[in-house]
Design brief:
Order of helices and strands: HEEHHEEH
Helix content: 40-55%
Number of strands: 4
Structural class: alpha+beta
Radius of gyration: 15 Å
Largest sheet: 4 strands, mixed
């Protein structure tokens, strides 16, 4: 993409973050107690704080993260299948931590991760 296209995609990322924060209530549920969206370059980062048990083992976290990836990646790929900005480098990071401050992991969704699952 050209410099102008990259700037345009960065503006789109910033707008997505802004709109997501304006509709925060749509992202909160029984498990998600805090949500915040930010953008950095062509990436939109969704930070989620989850209500989970304290002291989850690494294997429990990895199992949860794997299941969450299988849900999120196809969903985001489908939503962006006709999005020219996504083809030009727009990406999304879903970041998760617990209310106890335990990092549960990040899920990056970009054009490459969609290709890997056949989108």
């Amino acid at each position: 993409p050209s410099a102008a296209q990259i700037r345009q995609i960065e503006e789109i990322a910033a707008e997505i973050a802004k709109q997501s924060n304006a509709n925060k209530h749509l992202h909160l549920d029984d498990m998600t107690i805090s949500f915040n969206a930010t953008s950095s370059g062509r990436n939109v980062r969704f930070e989620n704080v989850l209500r989970v048990n304290t002291g989850l083992s690494q294997s429990e976290i990895m199992e949860w993260l794997g299941a969450t990836q299988q849900e999120i990646i196809p969903q985001v790929c489908a939503q962006n299948s006709n999005n020219p900005a996504f083809d030009r480098g727009l990406s999304y990071t879903f970041s998760y931590s617990s209310i106890y401050g335990q990092k549960m992991g990040d899920i990056l969704v970009d054009k490459e991760s969609c290709k890997r699952i056949g989108y």
